[in-house]
Design a protein that fits this description.
single chain, Fumarylacetoacetate hydrolase, domain 2, six-stranded mixed sheet, five-stranded mixed sheet, 5 helices
């Protein structure tokens, strides 16, 4: 019998509202600049020709209520509140009109970002990996099943930092809708059960400090809380 040279890590997974079950996570895709006002605050114009993406490792997942460390290599760690789409069926080269059929549910997520590293790499036209694919940088709330809540195309998305509102927008303000994102992304990847898509953040992103408490809420979907731990 073939054995592993070391025990493989447990499968990253997210709780599901109303079920005594977990949603196992395979991959994390993230959409960049999907709210016009956020693109402006980053000094970049929105690209309306097609969405663009970056990715995070599934090991970046953390549950709501977690304390996430302030990572090494940065002095400018930022929050980005986002709608997360959980894929529950195969989707390859799927049409936007059919894309909702591939969705298992929705959640709140934070795309935590080493902003100083992201911007320095962007200026050199290099990948954003050091800025985005950070350990413990993808906290996600309990998943709300689409079968229970439907497919929200609008609804308030907010983030509070130490009880002060920092981000406030509506899902309807996304440049690319959820069906459009799935249709486009599925032209390049065979999406399937366990994939997550972070759909972009509204304006108002900003830095955190150890001890900060973040609370994100998306109307009709749920809420997410995290505390920022000490610097590593």
């Amino acid at each position: 019998m073939t054995k592993f040279v070391f025990d493989p890590p447990p499968t990253p997974a997210i709780p599901i509202a109303g079920l005594d079950a977990l949603f196992p996570v395979a991959r994390i895709f993230c959409v960049g600049r999907n709210y016009e006002d956020h693109a402006k605050e980053m000094g970049i114009a929105v690209d309306r020709e097609k969405p663009f993406y970056f990715s995070k490792s599934a090991t970046a997942l953390r549950p709501s209520g977690a304390t996430i460390p302030y990572p090494p290599g940065t002095n400018n760690y930022h929050f980005e509140m986002e709608l997360v789409v959980a894929i529950g069926a195969p989707a390859f080269k799927i049409a936007a009109a059919d894309a909702l059929n591939a969705i298992y549910g929705y959640a709140c997520g934070l795309d935590m970002t080493r902003r100083d590293l992201q911007l320095s790499e962007r200026a050199k036209q290099r990948p954003w990996t050091l800025g985005k694919d950070v350990e413990a940088s993808a906290p996600v709330s309990t998943i709300a099943r689409a079968a229970a809540i439907g497919h929200p195309a609008r609804g308030a998305i907010t983030l509070r930092q130490n009880a002060e509102i920092r981000q406030s927008a509506d899902l309807s303000q996304m440049v690319w809708s959820v069906p459009e994102i799935i249709a486009h992304l599925s032209g390049f990847y065979q999406l399937g059960p366990g994939d997550l898509i972070f759909t972009g953040t509204p304006a108002g992103v900003g830095p955190v400090a150890p001890g900060d408490h973040l609370e994100g809420v998306i109307e009709g979907i749920g809420e997410l809380t995290v505390t920022i731990g000490e610097k590593r």
